[in-house]
Amino acid sequence: MAVLSVSRRTVARSVRALGVVSASAALAIGVAGNAAACNISEFTAEAKCDGEKGIITVTDKDPAGVPATITVFLQDKQVGQQVVKGTREGTTITFEEDWKPNAEYRIHVEAKPYVNEDIKGNLKTPDTGCKKDEEQPPSEEPEPTPSQSSTTPAEEPEQPAPSASESESTAPATETSNNAPSPAGESNLAETGADSNTGLIAGVAAALVVVGGGAVFFGMRRRGANSQS
Hints:
- The protein is α+β, with helices and mostly antiparallel strands.
- It is about 45% helix and about 25% strand.
- It has 6 helices and 8 strands.
- The strands form 2 sheets. Strands 3, 4, 6, 7 and 8 form a 5-stranded antiparallel beta sheet that branches.
- It comes from Streptomyces edwardsiae.
- Keywords: Membrane, Signal, Transmembrane, Transmembrane helix.
């Protein structure tokens, strides 16, 4: 009887020890499973281009394959929501979002009961967009304003080219009219210094000389007669 009681006690102790070990193993497996499923670092997001359209991709590398709800926000405005079931290699979902350059998106992950938080750091889009006009903005050349276009025609009449040519063509014509040859008689008189009245003046002068001489002679004769008497 003593031997039987001892064996029962040994079995009971062994069973208890086995239960403790099993519980510890289960707890360790549960903790390990929870740690693998709730690691937010398994989720990554990226902004890409699909042709000329923008897209946002989220990849879930969860070996446990716990379904997770992914929600994308732009300035607290929800732009899309999808459910992803991760794998060890990674499962990627795509959000069609025509994002703008240098925009920031918040990616929230909810995998109950393990994860309920945002991906660390907001998603910032590239500096250039997907469209060609956004990648290579056109060179900014100032177009002529209405004031400039209106002043341009007004400046054209101010150019002195037509009036200068007319004045230059008129000046020689004036000089030519002033230098026109005069009649033959006028040019001869101008060269000799005489005119058509020169002979008449000479005759009158001679007559005056004769009259003056006669008056002098008559006066002297009269004076002599008066002296003799």
